[in-house]
Design a protein that fits this description.
Blueprint: H1 4-7, H2 12-26, H3 29-38, E1 44-45, E2 48-49, E3 52-53, E4 57-58, H4 59-73
Antiparallel strand pairs: 1-4, 2-3
Pfam families: ATP-synt_Eps (PF04627)
Family: Belongs to the eukaryotic ATPase epsilon family.
Protein name: ATP synthase subunit epsilon, mitochondrial
Length: 74
């Protein structure tokens, strides 16, 4: 039996991001605000090709864009 996130065509990290966002949104107002602050990402990454670094991108924004793209394709 295949995992649901694999069948949906998303990575495990994206699956975890969606699950975490769902749990945060289900909380009451006070705890929800605290959990949303903890869920903010401030990580950056860059792809390297041919020994040269590409543009730096925010990991959170890149994940959101990728999830939106997957949702659009379905």
């Amino acid at each position: 039996m295949a995992f649901a996130w694999k069948t949906a065509g998303i990575t495990y990290n994206r699956y975890l991001a969606v699950a975490a966002r769902t749990v945060r949104r289900s909380l009451k107002e006070g705890p929800r605000l605290q959990a949303e602050r903890r869920g903010e990402m401030d990580l950056r990454f860059a792809k390297w090709q041919g020994g040269k670094q590409g543009d730096m991108k925010n990991l959170g924004e890149a994940n959101e864009a990728a999830m939106a793209q997957v949702a659009k394709e379905q």
